[in-house]
Specification:
mainly alpha
Length: 82
């Protein structure tokens, strides 16, 4: 029990958690990320078809990454902390 008491005392002495990004900024971040995702998706659909799709892959990958972070920011802004 001595180890448990030491851990409990350490837990009580630590400061509370504060996020790096303020929760009030999450809706704006989600909006920017998701709008840019939809813009890149539209741009992807208008690209000419190349024999080596390097540009297509780059645009699709960037849109996918931005969409993923945008959905996480949107979930966190409505209270679903993932």
């Amino acid at each position: 029990m001595d180890n448990y008491d030491a851990i409990q005392a350490l837990h009580r002495s630590l400061p509370p958690f504060t996020p790096y990004v303020a929760a009030s900024l999450l809706p704006q971040i989600a909006l920017v990320l998701l709008v840019s995702t939809f813009a890149l998706t539209f741009y992807f659909s208008t690209l000419p078809k190349d024999s080596i799709p390097i540009r297509e892959g780059a645009v699709a990958s960037l849109a996918s990454i931005l969409g993923g972070f945008g959905v996480v920011a949107l979930f966190c802004s409505v209270g679903v902390n993932v």
